[in-house]
Amino acid sequence: EPFQRLIPPAPGFLEALREATTEHGILLIFDEVVTGFRLAYGGAQEYYGVVPDLCALGKVIGGGFPLAAVAGRAEVMAHFDAGAVD
User: Fold this and answer.
1) Would 61 be classed as within a structural domain?
2) Which of 7, 62, 76, 82 is the most buried (most CB within 10 A)?
3) What is this structure's pTM?
């Protein structure tokens, strides 16, 4: 989770994490259940300017109903969709 409820990341941490994951071919995944649409309209990724490969969203997108979503880069999401990307 990029924000860890009440513990914001140290300056430069998320940027360094993005660089390291890209360099080593590791997916960067943000848990935006708490921060999505709250910290900023685009969540922590907009607020900190770091774009993850996958993002988990929940709570606020359901407006009180149990709803969740996973979003991500087309290349990554294609693995969940048998290769079909619209």
Assistant:
1) yes
2) 76
3) 0.81
Model confidence at 85: pLDDT above 60: no
| Domain carrying residue 44 | 13-80
Q: Report yes or no: 44 and 68 within 8 Å, Cβ to Cβ.
A: no
Q: At 68, is the secondary structure helix, strand, or coil?
A: strand
Q: Is residue 2 part of a domain?
A: no
In contact, 61 and 67? CB cutoff 8 Å: yes
Q: What is the pLDDT of residues 6-58, one digit of tens each?
A: 788 999 999 999 999 999 999 999 998 888 888 888 889 999 999 999 999 98
Q: How many domains does the chain fold into? A: 1
Cα-based angle 9, 57, 74 (whole degrees, multiple of 5): 95
Q: Give the integer Cα–Cα distance in Å for 86 and 74.
A: 9
Q: Identify the band that residue 60 occupies on the pLDDT scale cut at 50, 70 and 90.
A: confident
